[in-house]
Every structure is written in C-alpha cells, then in structure tokens.
Amino acid sequence: MNSKERIQSLLDGKQPDMVPVFPKISFATINAVPGMDFHDYTTDPEHMANAIISSAVKFGYDAVGITTDIANEGMALGSQYERPGDRPSKMVRYLMDSLDDYERVVMADPMDREPARTIIRATELVKKEIGDQIYITSWCNGPLNVASQLVPLEEVLIGMIDDPDTLHLLLERCLQFSMRYAKMLVEAGADAVSFGHAMASCTVISRDRYREFALPYEKRLVQAIHEAGGKAITHICGNIQPIISDVDTNGSDIIDFDHLCDPAAILQSSTRIVRGNLDPALFSNGTPEEVYQETARVVELCKGSRRFILGSGCEITESAPDANIRAFVQAGRDYGKY
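Below the sequence we write its predicted structure tokens.
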C-alpha cells in the first residue's frame, strides 16, 4: 500500500495498513533543496514543486500540502506584502482601513493573481510528478482569515459586535474568492483542499461568534470543494475543543486539531477523521528522542479510533532539524501499524 492508497483507504472507511503520516509542512520544505530561499519558493511554481517533492521523498511522509503562507488570498485581493528571501511574507499595507471599505474587495481570477497562480501551477507540477504515489493537498483560507488579511484584525473583531451586517458583506466577498480558488486547486490536481481558519478558533472568538461568522461560510466552502471533486480539510489553529461538535457539522472529510487540544476529547466529540497534533515548537526546540516519544504517545492514544492521521498541530517551521522530522515519521511508522 503506497502513501496515496493509505490515506484514500482511510477516507473510504476502510482500514489502511498503518496510520497515515501527514505533517503540516509547506514553505519549510525549502530545506530539502540546497540554496533555495523563501522568495524562490513563494514566487516560482517550479521551485515550489521541487521543494515539496524533494522533502516528501527525503522524509517519506504520506501527503503534501501545497501553499506559501497565510497571505495568499489577501495578497491576491490587493493587500501589500513584502516577500523577502529569509522569512515568510510580511504585511506592508492592508487593502482596507475599515469594514466600510468592503466594496474594494473585487472578485478576481486566481490565475491572474499572485501567489494563487504560483500555487495552482505548483499543484499541477506535483500532481504530474508524484500524484500516483502520494496524497496531494493544496491550501486556501476560510473567509474570516481572508478578511483579516484585508483589514486590520481589530476591525473584524469589533465588527462582530458593532457592525455584523457589514462584516457579513465582506465575508461573502471573501468566500466567493476562496470557493473559486479552491475549485481551481482541485482542477489542478489536488486530491483535497485544506482551508485555514485560525480566526474561527476559540482562542480568538466565542462559540456563538463561530456559529454566526464562521460555520455557515465553512459549510459553503466545503460544499464547493466537494462539488469540484475534492475532499475538504478544516484547519483551525488554537483551541477548538469547545466548538468541535460544531466544526463536525461543516461537512469536512478531515478536521485538524492543534497541540492545545486533548486528542481523546477531540475523538470523543467528532465523528470525522481527525489529524494532529504534535506541537510545532517541539519540532524546532526538542530533541529527536523527545519528538519520537511524544509522537509514539499520540499515535498510541489515537490509532484505535481507526479515523486518525498523524500530523503536526500546525506549521512546522524552517528551523526544525531534519533529525526531528525523521524521528516523527519513524515513530509514526513504528507505532502506527494496525
């Protein structure tokens, strides 16, 4: 059973040979290609595809995630970012100063905008090279995340209280772009589309706010991904335990959970396949022995559910030593056999 078959088997409701191993690692894959920097990766689809493929081959995990960073839709829709060689993109200027400017968000063709175009083309290249061997996911963002890339975060949060009608108008425009982008990612070869929605976390907003400003839009985004022929993965950073039963209703095929969550509680409250949840900081700051032991603990705790994918709670950064990623994958293989 190869990597793609392993994940597809789980999604089909069958038992694979072992727990799939799928860390959240994207721009840090530049470490697998000597001399590549962040700017190379984020601006050139061939560089991006090369890094993603090289890293997957080097470490032997079961799925890849194709993206740059959380600036994707914001940059495509008009916010200004720096794109340096030594770090991820950095905000320079928001498209809007307030929610009242929401009409400045105009629908665009993702293939005409960066970094969406680069990610779509990189997806095509990865699909062509290893699409029959490994499960391919590409990333977009949920509407609250997109909104926070277009206007200062405090405007979004205050709008939930003082001007919800205008915030909904903005979220609708953000959703329309995300749905169109997700559809193009599936058409480019992604088996699944993951959408980041950190703004929907209980670390940021309440359960009631999640139900009003996130869940209805997530449902429509998931539906659009399914209609395009892909699977959907929800990734909400931070603590989702208070809302996991709500997230469970958005229709996603897989729900990610961060290191702040208790795996047992997530499995008890969700009926979906779940992926998690090693602390990304452990990859950067821990020893290989510590990473191995924590990975083994999480796998032993979760694999009996038969609906678990081993992953990092969030993005593994470029500071993670190769030895720690190898320890993670090795522990997943050693303890993940059914």
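The mean pLDDT is 96.
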